């Protein structure tokens, strides 16, 4: 395995911990490394309200930033219906339940491989 994938896995592990710390729901990891050059992993999670979604975003930003992985960009924070956090090697999507159903990234990225969250712990 290359160092790039190991780095992506470490980033994914940290992001999952940060999301779980703030009680994120329905966390899903999609390995898109073989179907896209965007990133190695998509992490998709749901929050129940704006405050929780923002807290999850802050937690991911802080945890990855402390580990030396600052985000390239964060979009959607103020409205907090769909926050997209681009860390280059991983992309974190945090949705409210309505927008998660509407955009259905799991279906759009079905060519990627579902990754088991336990493999990152």
Task: Give keywords.
alpha+beta, Beta Polymerase, domain 2, 39% helix, 6 strands, 4 helices
Q: What ranges have pLDDT less than 50 throughout 5 or more consecutive residues?
A: none
Q: What is the count of β-strands? A: 6
CATH topology: Beta Polymerase, domain 2
Terminal Cα span: 18 Å
CATH architectural arrangement:
2-Layer Sandwich
Radius of gyration: 13 Å
What would CATH call the homologous superfamily? Beta Polymerase, domain 2
Strand order of the largest sheet: 3-4-5-2-1-6
Assign the structural class, choosing from mainly alpha, mainly beta, alpha/beta, alpha+beta, or little secondary structure.
Answer: alpha+beta
SSE order = HEEHEEEHHE
| Main beta sheet | 6 strands, mixed
Helix content: 25-40%
| Total of DSSP H or I helical runs spanning 4+ residues | 4
Mean pLDDT: 95
Q: Structurally, how many domains make up the residues?
A: 1
Give the oligomer, counting copies of the same chain as homo and different chains as hetero: single chain
CATH class category name: Alpha Beta
Q: Determine the strand fraction and express it as a percent band.
A: 25-35%
